[in-house]
Every structure is written in structure tokens, then in C-alpha cells.
Automatic annotation (TrEMBL):
InterPro entries xref list: Ribosomal_mL43 (IPR039927), Ribosomal_mL43/mS25/NADH_DH (IPR007741), Thioredoxin-like_sf (IPR036249)
Record family assignment: Belongs to the mitochondrion-specific ribosomal protein mL43 family.
One GO term (biological process): mitochondrial translation
Origin: domain of life: Eukaryota
Predominant localisation class: mitochondrion
Protein name, per record: Large ribosomal subunit protein mL43
Subcellular location, record wording: Mitochondrion
Pfam families per the UniProt record, alphabetical: L51_S25_CI-B8
Organism: Cardiocondyla obscurior
Length: 201
């Protein structure tokens, strides 16, 4: 079994700088492409520089790209991020397609986030004394001594009427009130008519 994970950079999961507060903020700030003009190992990055670098710079105006030729050295990509960290990777004998994929990966990730060894799956700047909340945090401790089956705990939960049900009840009450007022007006009109007939007779 390998012990390489012991030497990995460790930390807690946290949002990158400026990300999630407003609009999306690309964490990649600067990229330096170091290559040789004649060495065979730099053929892939030379192809990227000749055919794809201009489009990459147009599509990502927030990323500064430096091209640094150097003689008889292996090609290297150095990426610098907003948090001040740098990622260095050697791309000797990489094809042009591989360089495109690695440049896209460096642009979309935040430093070495995927290679960070997490100490815990959650982290808070203000830890609680009583620990994290669970469904049993505020339960009555006497429920530990309850004998089952229990009628109270096994009874169905009765919830109050919903807002829709309350509106339906109010509507029905209004309809009943309208019907009673209309019936009372009809009875009053019929009583007046009968009294008129009696007076004429």
C-alpha cells in the first residue's frame, strides 16, 4: 500500500475566492507556456501556440497568457491562480489535443482542489459546543425508557388544515351567507306582496 497520501496537501472543503458571491469568477489568473522552438518534445505545445492560442486568449480575456521560448528544455505549463498558488506541469511529448485538454482543465479548476486531501467532509469556522444537529438532539430523554408498542408514539400525526383548505372553508361560508341573504330578501318581497293583496281585498 502506498503512503503517498501522507505527503499530499491537506485542508478543508471551502469555496474558492470570490466564487458563489456574485457572478462566476475564473480562478485562473496567469498561464506561462515554456517551450523549445526546435526540440521534438515541444511539438504539441508548438502546435497549440500556432493554431489555438489566439482563440484561447479571445475566449478567456481574464487569463493572461505568456509564451516563453527556451532552448533545449522540456515544455512546461505554469498556471497561477487568484489565491496565489501555482501549478507546474511538464508536458513533454504531449500532442496538441492533450495540451488543449490540459489547458481547459487548468482554466476550470481552482488550483489543486481535486488533489487536496480532505481532513473532514464538512467544516465550519464557528464550531458548536454540543456538536452537529441530529434528529434526536432535542428529543425527550425519557423516550429511551418507553415500552413498545406505544399508542401515543404509534398514533398518526394530525396536522392542522392547510392554507388551501382554509380558503375553501372561507369560500363555502361566503356562499352560505350569500344564499341566506338572498333567501331573506325573497321572503321579505313575498311578504310585502301578500300584504298588498290583503289590503286591496
Amino acid at each position: 500500500m502506498s503512503n503517498s497520501h501522507l505527503f499530499m496537501k491537506s485542508g478543508f472543503p471551502r469555496a474558492p475566492f470570490g466564487l458563489g458571491i456574485g457572478r462566476y469568477v475564473c480562478q485562473l489568473q496567469r498561464v506561462t507556456l515554456k517551450f523549445c522552438k526546435s526540440h521534438g518534445a515541444s511539438q504539441g505545445i508548438r502546435g497549440f501556440i500556432e493554431h489555438d492560442l489566439v482563440n484561447y486568449a479571445k475566449e478567456n480575456p481574464g487569463v493572461v497568457v505568456y509564451v516563453k521560448p527556451r532552448r533545449h528544455r522540456n515544455p512546461v505549463i505554469v498556471a497561477e491562480y487568484l489565491d496565489g498558488n501555482r501549478k507546474w506541469m511538464e508536458i513533454a511529448n504531449y500532442s496538441r489535443e492533450d495540451v488543449i485538454k490540459w489547458m481547459e482543465l487548468l482554466r476550470t479548476q481552482f488550483h489543486d482542489g481535486p488533489s487536496l486531501r480532505l481532513r473532514k467532509l464538512w467544516h465550519t469556522e464557528f464550531p458548536s459546543i454540543q456538536g452537529p444537529w441530529t434528529p434526536f438532539t432535542f428529543r425527550n430523554p425519557m423516550s429511551n425508557l418507553t415500552q413498545f408498542p406505544n399508542k401515543e408514539l404509534g398514533a398518526a400525526i394530525k396536522l392542522g388544515p392547510t392554507a388551501t383548505e382554509k380558503l375553501i372553508e372561507i369560500f363555502k361560508a361566503q356562499q352560505l351567507a350569500d344564499n341566506t341573504t338572498s333567501d331573506s330578501t325573497n321572503t321579505c318581497q313575498s311578504a310585502n306582496e301578500t300584504s298588498k293583496h290583503v289590503q286591496r281585498a
